[in-house]
Amino acid sequence: MKPFLISLFLLCGTVVFSQDCTINAYQSLEYKDKKATVCGVVTQVYAAKSTQGKPVYLNFGGQFPNHSFTVVVWERDQSKFQLDLSEYEGKHIAVTGTVKEYDEKGQIVLRDPKNINIIK
Fold first, then answer.
1. Residue 95 within any structural domain of the chain
2. pLDDT single digits (tens) 10-28
């Protein structure tokens, strides 16, 4: 009985979490100016150290400039993250925030580490 309950709990937890993903990276502009949870694989992490504000970009769907969606973390917020942002590369993640458009692509500016999760 105990293994059954554990399996049931894990299955329900997965179903609940998967429902939290509002959209994938390619659909992001459909939610422009709306809060959404975008899920996908981070294909590139780029630290723009010579750019004002020293942002780190987490690109989905390809490497810059062929990506489909970007998460931006400005330098002032980077110290809030326990995990080095480069560790997200290659990981399937969920990020929540207001989707904005930048260079005809969807983007979320991430300020709080509570709004990004690695999907196991």
1. yes
2. 444 443 344 489 999 999 9
